[in-house]
Structure formats: C-alpha cells, structure tokens
Amino acid sequence: MMLTVELFEQIATALKADRGSARDQRGGPRVGLRTRAKISPMLLGDKGAQPVDVWVRDLSMNGIGLTASHALPQGSTFSITLPTKAGEKIVLTYKVAHCTQASSTVFVIGASLEQSIEDVTKASRPAPRQAQRRSA
Known about the structure:
mainly beta, Thrombin, subunit H, 2 helices, 49% strand, cyclic-di-GMP binding, PilZ domain-containing protein, PilZ_domain
C-alpha cells in the first residue's frame, strides 16, 4: 500500500523536514524528519500494547523510519497518528521490516505502510445536519 501523493505532501509539510543525504540509497524518495510521536504496537493475540515514544526519522509514500528505546519484532505492526498540512490527523498502520540495535538504548526501525485507517479529525466531527422541511 502507498500513501497518495497529496496525503504524503500534507504529512511531510506538517512535520519538520530536513534535507536528505547524498548517500541515501533507498528505492523511493523519502523526507528526512526530526519529530517525536507515539506509536501503538499491535502484538499477536493482543489488541495493542502501551503507546511507545519514538522519533520519526524519515517518511516516504510507502514506509517510515523511526528510532526508539525499545525493539519491535520484525513482522509486527503498529499504528501512528500523524498530522496533515490542513491541521487534521490521520492514523496509519505499518509493518516492521527491520529493527537494528544502534546502541544499548537506541533501536533503528524501518517499516512499510500497511493501511491508512482513517482521518481522525474528520471522523470525530459531527455529521452535518440536513435541512429539515417544514410541514405546511
């Protein structure tokens, strides 16, 4: 699954971006980021674990790079809520492709997009009222 170009631009614009490295050898374009977020790991046989604080390192139309203080098993999934340029929020689900220990307390995680759940902000708004006709 991939984010639409429009949604990718909205999320990337809403987050603080930095320039990519000339050494970057990824298959698709990514936006380098430095922003804190919370992810909700979804463990097998469980509806989800406690939210985990992470740093979002980069984002592409089909993946995300994170650093965290805890490892996430390869193949596990997590959800993350990200802002859009319009000030709305969207929940995305990712599957962990790799998790590498960078130091005793830092793990580098790469994940691929599984699903866009829904626009949280729009979903929480009340439905517009339809005009009621007056009976004569």
